[in-house]
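hey can u check if this looks right to u? its 305 residues, i copy pasted from the old doc so theres a chance i mangled smth
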Amino acid sequence: MMPSSAVLPAGVDKEALLTELRRLSWGAADILRAYARGEQPPHGFPKALSVDDGGEGPVSAADLAVNKWLLDGLSAAFPQADWMLLSEETAKEQLTEGQPLPAEWLWILDPLDGTKDFLQGTGEYAVHLALVRDKRPVIGVVLLPDADELWIGIVGEGAWCEDRQGERSPVRFSDRTEVSDLILVASRSHRDDRLVKLIDALNLGGSKAVGSVGFKVATILRGETDLYVSLSGTSAPKDWDMAAPEAVLLAAGGRFTHADQADLTYNTGDVRQAGCLIASHGKAHAELGERATRAMAEIDPGFQV
């Protein structure tokens, strides 16, 4: 059952929250694009120094700047809100292995998802913000700075894309429903033999390779592709990679689950999202899961899907 987002922490107004998320997202876009171009970033953040100059490189500087921008912004806008803030940049200080954070409501942030794409200038990087309640996502924001796309999803209410002027575009899932017609969106770099064998076993209609998880899910929301598969163990994606993309996809009517249809859960004491995970427009999700589960039993017996 999908959680309802009708209830937010006491004193938090939904429209006020969305207004602040828009401001923070476009501010993050300006910061990242400035660092990507080697320009002076806005909002008082320092220009990146090269490692040769004894400073941080553009990725570290951009990561830290956007992290501070988001955390400070949420804290200042809602000082009394009964939630905690967790980001990829603060995780080492905040988390203890095996212990969830003591929060009913938790923001999970990734200030820069797709570091390689940011460095290589592909534009296929993203910023993720997700509000999680009791281990499941309620609100998700996926910002694609170079595309000027802000994807917002409120689980139980819907999802949409906004541009800088606030013009909304609807989610446009493809009409493809047969597994043999579905288009996979895949990583360029994170592919091992097991994943190649699994994709072959699914017998899909084609594939497209792009960068960050947020960017991948956006291709599903636009109807360019239909599914994404993550297959991993100890070096798995983390909560901040998956929470916001899942929230937007779920709000749009899609699915993001383990191959056995079990939900992804967050703030469990283990930030790794390991296993065989499938994100899709939902139209053949159960069949995809069944095929993947059967295939993994042969490819890697004992692998926890």
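The helical segments are 14-37, 58-77, 91-94, 115-120, 193-202, 213-222, 239-251, 285-299.
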